[in-house]
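Troubleshooting: if your tokenizer reports a length mismatch, compare your output against this known-good record of 204 residues.
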Amino acid sequence: MRFILSILLIANFISCTNNNTKSENKSIAVGDSLAEIAFLDSIDMPCIYNDSVKKDFTFENELEEVVIVSYKNVRTFTQNKSKEKNEIIKNGKIHFKNFKEKLILKQNEIDSLKKKLFNYSRQSDIISSADCYFPRHCIYFMGKKQKVIAYLEICFECSKYESNNPDLKILCWNQFDILKNFLKNCGVKEGFDINSMDPNSSKK
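Known-good structure output:
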């Protein structure tokens, strides 16, 4: 019996090691764009902060406002009662509108967000995929006539995100906590308690 348990433990260790060293990005079709979904492994993913980085969004000239939302229910990729998929955007406009909170950022908050996104890098290139994705928050970058220029949807529970723009990436593990605190400081109160929302509720 001890021999069998030893074999199982060794096999499990090898499996975990292989999963943690795999580099992978996944892309899925969402709305009108091809959105990247990335999951950052917790192993060897420290953030490196560089205060000297000064960078604007590539779509800065089009940007009218930045909006943060929290969802009433977790967005899923399945169809709802009206047989429409829960896409984030459709025809350039916000499609999934099941919001519990909606906040428009001030200019100083937008400047702070840029630092949270652009001033961090990572020491490791370990990126792996995960089955878990229960997003509860999204940051919309809006242009004229309420057109969605870009978005960054975040699942803090699974340390995973979805974006349709290469500017908007979460590169290191601690950045999820940094962005979570940023959202809270901006006034977002909902969606952080993973027990308060049913991942399957948006299917109903």
